[in-house]
Specification:
This protein is 42% helix and 16% strand. By secondary structure, it is of the alpha+beta class. It has 2 domains: 40 residues; 94 residues, 2-Layer Sandwich (Tetrahydropterin Synthase, Chain A), CATH 3.30.479.30. Strands 1, 2, 3 and 4 form a 4-stranded antiparallel sheet that branches. Helix 3 packs antiparallel against helix 4. Its main location: membrane.
C-alpha cells in the first residue's frame, strides 16, 4: 500500500485551515529564508564589484604629469624584421620603424644618459632585429616590446634608471 504524504500539523495556538483548503508545505519558510540570503549575497557581491571598479577607475584615471620629469629622444630607428619564411616563392622583407623617447624621473639623469645613447641604441637594434612581425601584433605585442626595451635600457645605463619607454611612432611595414 502507498503511504500518504505527511501533512504538517498546526502548532498550538494556530488556526487549522478549513477542510477544502490544502495546507502549505512545511518547507515554505525555509525557501523564503534561502531566497533572502541569496539576495543578500548577490547584493553584497554587486556592491563589492562596484566598489572595486570605482577604486580601480580612480587609480587608472588621468594622471597629472610629475613635476620633475625629463625626456630623452632617441634617433629614429628602422630595422628589418626576421622573416617567418618564404611567401609565394619570394621572401618579402618586413621593416619596423620606431620613434622612442625615454622618460626619466630627474632632469639630472639626462646628463647621465646622454653619453650612453649609442649603447642604448645598440641594445634596441640587437633586440628588434630578432623580432618577427607576429611578435608586434595587437596591443599585447606592443606592450611586450615596451617592457623589453625598458628592461634593456635600464641594463645598459645602470646605475641610472629610466622610468618608461614611450613609443612616439611604431610602424610595421
Amino acid at each position: 500500500m502507498a503511504k500518504k504524504p505527511k501533512v504538517a500539523k498546526p502548532e498550538a495556538g494556530e488556526a487549522t485551515p478549513p477542510e477544502g483548503e490544502a495546507q502549505k508545505p512545511a518547507g515554505g519558510r525555509k525557501k523564503l529564508i534561502l531566497a533572502g540570503a541569496g539576495a543578500v549575497v548577490v547584493l553584497a557581491g554587486a556592491g563589492g564589484g562596484f566598489y572595486y571598479m570605482k577604486s580601480k577607475a580612480a587609480h587608472d584615471g588621468p594622471v597629472a604629469p610629475k613635476a620633475h620629469v625629463a625626456y630623452v629622444d632617441l634617433k629614429d630607428m628602422t630595422v628589418n624584421l626576421t622573416s617567418p619564411g618564404q611567401q609565394g616563392g619570394v621572401e618579402r622583407t618586413r621593416y619596423l620603424k620606431l620613434k622612442v623617447s625615454l622618460e626619466v624621473s630627474d632632469p639630472k639623469v639626462v646628463t647621465d644618459v646622454q653619453p650612453l645613447l649609442p649603447r642604448i641604441e645598440d641594445a634596441f637594434q640587437v633586440y628588434t632585429r630578432e623580432l618577427r612581425p607576429s611578435d608586434l601584433e595587437g596591443s599585447a605585442g606592443v606592450y611586450r616590446l615596451k617592457e623589453e626595451l625598458l628592461r634593456r635600457v635600464n641594463v645598459a645605463i645602470h646605475p641610472a634608471r629610466v622610468e618608461a619607454v614611450l613609443l612616439k611612432e611604431i610602424l610595421v611595414q
